[in-house]
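Translate sequence into structure tokens.
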Amino acid sequence: MKSILCFALFFVLESCHSSTKAYKNGDIIFQISLSAQSKAIQLATQSQYSHCGIIYQKGKEYFVFEAVQPVKLTPLKEWIARGKNQHYVIKRLKNAQSILTPKVLVSMQKEGEKFRGKKYDIYFGWDDQRIYCSELVWKIYKRGANIEIGKLQRLRDFDIDHKVVRKKLKERYGERIPLSEKVISPASIFEDSQLIEVERN
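Result follows.
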């Protein structure tokens, strides 16, 4: 508990002094993952971006809080290097300076801590037992800042007829695909009009 509180305090202090830096606490970063499921996600969501996380600053270093196996903080440079061609896009909430106050940022960080160490959810379920990347981002913003980033959809809303997508779904669910399962995709967060692009590589 002590380490969490110390990190939360550091999170606030760095937020108050990082206005001139390229990255800010709460920024959302997107990349093209090289994971086995990335192509299926791209096809199903009709977007090139298949992975995302939230940028945190700790001291002078930047990290990405992400849902992989398990949910963890990953050094930003390491996170970028892991993506296809090291390409990434960083987006920020409009008027973030006034909306993501130190109090709100601490609330978001505390919500994120509840997921730290949890297993990655290969079944894309909506409960909190396991969690996937865009679900982590959505729930931190919703529960910590009361902001919904991206449109919640059902699995049936995606393009699931492509053979690559169908194959991956069958691997995960067999013949019983949960078409009514609530889902938030990296693409939906990426396209949200509440966000502005601040950096691209």
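Note: The first strand starts at residue 28 and ends at 31.
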